[in-house]
């Protein structure tokens, strides 16, 4: 049937008026039912109408009935859901009308406003129904319970917050439907039951039936994780409907054979040892509609792909390692997987968390806070946050960050800093997750070297805006090399790209790989920071040329980093390439110095390099690293105080010893080793210079700062063994400690374990630094970490 859309809206708009009539007549409980549950609005040009195709057999009607309160709430929820669907489809139609230049015969904007008004009226009506229903229930409850005093608010010193929480519930319990879901009905009895049995602010009620023993949750038997090489089930799980998901699936397919080979190698390396299968939820928050998803529309327009590259590789690594994986790309999916009660997230989850681990990002963390409420604090030890640029401890500790000027829009979650997982190993306080680059076999490497064009350069910059102001050094480069670009454009060549540049437009990944295999040079403009492309270019036999930053960029002096929860100073466009790869594959020069730039170009033309890919960015390297994290990192178990009270009996010879042929201290070989990962055999204890962080101090000795070791060196024993003169030893909340002042002979130990920081430094203090060794090509793992 064809029904004018205005007729539909007029009928729906009458609902609130009909509802008011029933409220007045019945003094309480009512329902409004709608007989069109599945309408699909399709735009046509026939008489300025929408064609409403009926998807059910029932006729198109609007009816008003009187039902019970429980049914009324259910139907009102369906009405709200239906209106939300209509709004989304109307929004799509308005976009279609705009894109296809449809005549404005249907006055879409006006219709959208009418639907919005209807939705608000239905929402208001739902609130009134709920209030009336609950008041009625409360009245009947009073009659039933009498005045026995069973529900007097207790004044118990062990539960000091109980009276205040009851007062809050009296005025605000209708603010979230989740309270009604748990049986709250407006009476003090229901408040006390909820606050003592669902939350923990009030004591258990004596008259409640507590005779039956609590049902103990049986831990399911542990299952073995087996490596997977067929990725078809993973591809089905990733889903469809977004260009970002299509990009991720193409990447997974392209690298499938390399993942399979890597899985076989790692299985042999681990001697096919037993590995526990974990239940893992991956919630990709930045791709949800609720977070705005600005990435998906730009996938085919030169937008950033680094985050999608990393998430595709994380999903694949977890799946190939054999874990039980669930993937969420929407808040609705997140709620379903977690078993969140309906509402706005004010109530906690009452059951156990159905996952061992949850991988998400900052957007997802915020969504989980909104929908898990108090449960997030209870379960946050299971969370791993994918965090490109890193989060330092001073920014992570909410109270400390607020008091000392480290508060930003992103930090302050009070996690263990190792729960943040970065794209590159630039922040030892965090765990290094990484991604993978395509690995070449020997035949491919030989073919690349034979077919290199020594005077061919490819520019790192897909967006035309990145080329602004770069003419001077591009002119120098053009004197020596043929310059190629991959700048996105729709119809006209971007004016920012010089005429002498051969612009290929935005290339698919495989065509870009072929271009890089021919090119001699891959040149960066200074932005984007720390992306995957330079590693891919180096892996395809290019030399990467990048600008040096004077002074280094940081959150203190550069807009891009402002607000990010880190004080890290970025010395070049790609610090990992500069520090961990270096020459001859990477050259970092001052682009403002024309002579230095031109000298570098000439040297690149003379230099021959082989394709190179660090082991930690191969599929095997990533599998090895993620496997180690999953099997060994545990942030839920309570750590015993260290050192214990009987330390002198357990370690009569002391905790530390001077290592042979070294100025560093290690864990005493004859000491009992407390449980720890990484193992304490990897510990190397040293002291920084004034104004130097432990990151730098450890790097000076060819080591890596290890935050897991701080709790073992945060004691007087370490100060004595390092021969530090302390007139005073303070225990303080300070992200610089443990540290000491040479001038004042003052020593400070850390009082708050969340503030143990590799990154912290002060001009007044020398840091006590726990370093460790690392595996060749795998900086995230110590030699004994597997």
Quick structural summary:
With 786 residues, this protein is of the alpha/beta class.
Keywords:
alpha/beta; single chain; seven-stranded mixed sheet; 786 residues
SSE order and pairing:
Elements: H1 5-13, H2 15-26, E1 31-34, E2 39-43, E3 50-54, E4 62-65, H3 69-99, H4 108-145, H5 162-172, H6 177-181, H7 188-197, H8 232-238, H9 243-254, H10 256-269, E5 279-283, H11 306-320, E6 324-328, H12 331-338, E7 357-360, H13 362-372, H14 375-379, E8 383-386, H15 393-396, H16 398-404, E9 420-422, E10 431-432, H17 442-451, E11 456-460, H18 471-480, E12 482-485, E13 502-503, H19 509-518, E14 521-524, H20 533-539, E15 543-553, E16 570-572, H21 575-581, E17 586-589, H22 594-606, H23 619-632, H24 647-650, E18 656-658, E19 665-667, E20 683-687, H25 694-700, E21 704-705, H26 710-713, H27 716-721, E22 728-732, E23 739-741, E24 746-750, E25 766-772
Parallel strand pairs: 5-6, 5-7, 7-8, 8-9, 9-10, 11-12, 11-14, 12-13, 14-15, 15-17, 22-24
Antiparallel strand pairs: 1-4, 2-3, 15-16, 18-19, 20-25, 21-25, 23-24, 23-25
Helix pairs in contact: 1-4, 3-4, 5-7, 9-11, 10-23, 12-13, 18-22
